[in-house]
Specification:
With about 625 residues, the protein is α+β, with helices and mostly antiparallel strands. The protein has helices at about 10-35, 45-55, 60-75, 85-130, 150-155, 160, 165-170, 185-195, 240-255, 275-280, 285-290, 295, 305-315, 355-420, 425-455, 465-480, 500-515, 575-585; strands at about 135-140, 145, 195-205, 210-225, 225-235, 260-265, 270-275, 315-325, 330-345, 345-355, 460-465, 490, 495-500, 525-535, 535-545, 590-595, 600-610. The strands form four sheets. The protein has a five-stranded antiparallel beta sheet, sandwiched between helices. A hairpin with a 5-residue loop joins strand 8 and strand 9 (about 330-345). Helix 15 (about 425-455) packs parallel to helix 18 (about 575-585) and helix 16 (about 465-480) crosses helix 17 (about 500-515).
Length: about 625
């Protein structure tokens, strides 16, 4: 807004009011002088009043004042009798013309002055409000003016930069850091050649020394058809350049990507088609532009096309495996992603296709192998079921058909000894006792074999196990037997686990019995039981101080009928440790032993710390 007191800011009432006040002052001055009989020329006050009204109130009130003064002068005029009327009229007309010209001249210059001030003020407001930096330079390249936006961008205060050379302060180096000679500067060329220059990618330097990318235009300033300076209008494009560079890099990445990437919209079809798409599908970019992707590639979706399109437009995203046809008719399996993005206000679709044909073929082959494997497993399962039935039949036969003759041999041998013992010599009795012992041993062997066979078919009933409590129960059971061998058990801390209680009880029975049996030659039998957690499993051990064994035979310990000691010294069938191995293996654990001759042995077994899965019976 113009704050000057010019008449253009006054209301008509105020302007003509000033005219009336000046007229009344002049009229009062005239009457006062007449009353005092003071003869004084009023031309000077008249001129001053007229100029005052014309300057402050404008041309209209100034002319009105002249008319009022003329009327008052005519009314008060006392011309001499000898003065011609024409002379009087000519005098009045001359005065009016002179005063009128004065009013026009004064008001015109006042109007020009007000207009100039208003234009300067508007220009100042314009320069201060624009976001671009504006710097003026004179013919010598020195700063002549600078708007606030320019001061903010370069970090210099206006009074710090005015009168100083612009080039060495703001424009001394190129974007690559090399010196920028003034003779090659486009701003200097504007002064030298009187030509406008526009530069879109150079750098200016701030007062701190930091640089920023700018786009600027330098325009010459003319006075009387002569270049007197230049105006440089510039803006900071650092963020735009960084974004443009990043977009360029992304474009390179997209173009060089091995994946097929394309951009399309629902109205114009394919807008971009990278080299990966050309390699995969055989269509050049020119062939693809403007086409509909799913029609061009004959896409087979897992859902109807209409459902795919509605889902994409509703959610802005779709992903899945599809089948495409290449230009030469080959099928290509693609893992495809569709993403709706905003591109310059247009809803466009970014589609990425990754070739998974080899994977799909491998999956199909694997599926075929799985089908074949499942068929073989089914056949094998059927064979195993038949083998189990045969094994059950064999077990029944062993249990009934073989036991009967063994009982007969043992029974008749006992009768012969009891009824005819007095008729037999010592050798005959010994041989009959050997027959009985072997028959009984054969019975025990059959019992162990049947037990070992049943382990393979029994379903595991796993539950949380208090292993320490289980070991204590087995210990009490063994020690309470009538023919029990005295032994001292030291049962330490045993971590809890999961397993089939009845089968794990058999493990401890066999291990404790072995420890006692092979320690009988010691004066004092001691059995140590302990456990600990390690590497995700619980490990338990049973340690004795008996006769031990040679570690080179350790791999034979857990086989059926494998014995490392003479049966005459230590009874048994060689099946007990095989049962231990079978039970622990079915629980997902392992068994091993460490020993030294005549210094004892330690048997270890492990169990999972957590429940894994319910075991199913197997068959051998």
């Amino acid at each position: 807004m113009n704050s000057s007191p010019g008449y253009r800011n006054w209301t008509p009432l105020k302007r003509y009011g000033l005219c009336a006040v000046v007229f009344l002052v002049l009229l009062g001055l005239s009457f006062g002088l007449s009353y005092l009989h003071y003869k004084q020329d009023l031309s000077i006050p008249l001129l001053v009043g007229t100029v005052l009204v014309a300057w402050f109130a404008g041309r209209g009130p100034g002319l009105a004042l002249i008319v009022l003064i003329l009327i008052a002068a005519i009314m008060r005029a006392e011309p001499r009798p000898d003065t011609p009327v024409s002379t009087i009229v000519l005098g009045y007309v001359t005065a009016v013309v002179i005063l009128g010209l004065l009013v026009v001249l004064v008001s015109g210059r006042r109007n020009a002055s007000v207009t100039n001030r208003r234009l300067r003020r508007q220009n100042e407001l314009l320069l201060n409000s624009v976001g671009e930096g504006i710097i003026g330079i004179d013919r010598e390249g020195k700063c002549s003016f600078m708007n606030p936006a320019a001061a903010t961008l370069v970090g210099w205060a206006t009074d710090e930069l005015i009168g100083k050379p612009l080039h060495p302060l703001l424009h001394h180096s190129r974007p690559d850091g090399s010196p920028y000679p003034p003779a090659e500067c486009p701003i200097g060329a504007t002064l030298r050649n009187a030509s406008e220059r526009h530069v879109s990618d150079e750098v200016f330097f701030k007062k701190s020394g930091d640089r920023f990318f700018v786009e600027y235009t330098s325009t010459p300033i003319y006075e009387d058809e002569e270049v007197t300076g230049a105006v440089v209008v510039f803006r900071d494009i650092t963020e735009e350049k960084n974004a443009r560079d990043a977009l360029y890099q992304k474009g390179l990445l997209i173009e060089q990507s091995h994946e097929a990437i394309m951009v399309w919209d629902f109205e114009h079809g394919i807008l971009d088609w990278n080299s990966g798409s050309e390699r995969l599908y055989g269509y050049s970019r020119a062939n693809a532009l403007g086409k509909v992707t799913y029609k061009l590639l004959h896409t087979i979706f897992p859902v109807p096309v209409d459902e795919f399109l509605m889902g994409l437009q509703r959610t802005g995203f779709w992903a899945g495996d599809v089948v495409h046809l290449t230009r030469d008719g080959r099928e290509v399996y693609s893992s495809t992603r569709y993403q709706i993005v905003d591109l310059n206000g247009r809803r466009t679709v970014l589609q990425t296709n990754r070739d998974i044909t080899d994977r799909k073929r491998a999956e199909n082959e694997l599926r075929g192998l799985n089908d074949t494997l499942e068929k073989r497993v089914a056949e094998r399962t059927q064979s195993l079921e038949e083998a189990n039935k045969e094994l059950e039949a064999f077990s029944y036969s062993v249990s009934h058909d073989l036991r009967a003759p063994l009982r007969a041999v043992d029974g008749f041998s006992r009768i012969v000894i009891e009824d005819y013992g007095d008729k037999l010599d010592a050798e005959g009795k010994r041989l009959l006792n050997v027959i009985r012992d072997n028959a009984q041993n054969m019975g025990r062997l059959i019992d162990d074999l049947l037990q070992f066979s049943r382990l393979s078919r029994k379903t595991l009933e796993t539950s949380p196990l208090d292993i320490r409590n289980l070991a204590q129960d087995v210990c009490l059971e063994l020690q309470s037997a009538e023919d029990a061998t005295p032994a001292e058990f030291k049962i330490g801390e045993l971590p809890e686990s999961y397993g089939d209680r009845s089968l794990m009880r058999q493990v401890f029975v066999n291990l404790f019995s072995n420890a006692i049996k092979y320690s009988r030659k010691k004066e004092k039998i001691e059995v140590e039981v302990g456990g600990f957690a390690k590497n995700g499993e619980n490990i338990y051990f049973v340690r004795d101080h008996g006769i031990g064994f040679d570690m080179k035979y350790a791999d034979k310990l857990f086989g059926v009928f494998q014995r490392l000691h003479d049966a005459e010294q230590f009874e048994g069938t060689g099946v007990g440790l095989a049962i231990v191995h079978r039970v622990v293996s079915r629980h997902g654990g392992r068994v091993w032993a460490e020993a030294e001759l005549n210094k004892g042995a330690t048997f270890y077994f492990s169990l999972p710390r957590e429940r894994t899965h319910e075991e199913r019976p197997d068959a051998e």
